[in-house]
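ingest -> validate -> predict -> emit
validate: passed (alphabet ok, no gaps, 323 aa)
predict: started
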Amino acid sequence: MIPILDVSRYFAGDMDELPRLGGQLRDAFENVGFYYLRGHGVPRSLIHAAFAECERFHAQPAEKKLAVRINEHNIGYMAMGGSIARSSKVNNNTKPSVNEAFFLRRERTPDDPDVIAGKRFRGLNQWPADLAGFHETALAYMAALEQLGKRLVRIYAVALDLPADYFDPMFKQPNMIQRFTHYPPQPHYEDNQFSIAPHTDSGFMTLLAPSAVPGLSIRLPDGTWFDAPSDPDAFIVNGGNILRLWTNDRFLATPHRAINTSGQARYAIPFFFDTHPDTVISCLPTCQSTRNPAKYEPITYDEYALWYATRNYVHLSQDQAAA
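emit:
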């Protein structure tokens, strides 16, 4: 149902694999919008360590978590009920999602020019004070997935009939978001309530590590919801709205949701891998023609990210309303 891409031979140096993988990725995004990624090379021990730190963070008392409350850069702890997914065209979401989450972005220092300039979504990470090792494990995991994303973008370029290195400059210093999410068990849900409501992601690539507790469902193009099984050897990867806009709707941004009726806590550690924030998202040359002209005006990644965030996160929508 969900295609599988095995990149092990390509990552081992077999360049003859690139056209084959490009074709597989093209089929995945034109028909499903998701794929399983095997052979990725991220150590399973590091993935397990990241999940452990996610669980350890959320096991803290509320006052500890609120000490790093989410801010205007969408960095920090978002308490339960902090998001209402408004990026869905398949469901009228009216209730906050039943989850809490902790967000990290690229690690920066106070002398970073973007920090000094106060650029939105480029602030300093907030770190919990009393979790020895959390900081180091989180950054190691993010570094591993940043390198993975940089290797994958060449497959995306080939899939779109572009030179393999086409995207390289735009991802030299990518925007990245690490989300550590806790979905508490729900014996029942109210009407139109979800652990995370139907939505499409905002960006270019989402890498979701395999969770021991199921809960992810994706909406297939025929309108049916498919419960995606977790593969311990594979990331589940999908594209978001930036990829869809960039490809003139050629590649899908597929709605998905999560429901946790397992009877136990579920944790998820999605990693969002995107272009440098200043990148202008303008229809790719291979995705337009005289018969299929560009549908969308150019927009920077940052401009789109701000629009998306203010629609989906309660604290940012309140700030926008106050402004």
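DSSP finds nine helices and 15 strands in the chain.
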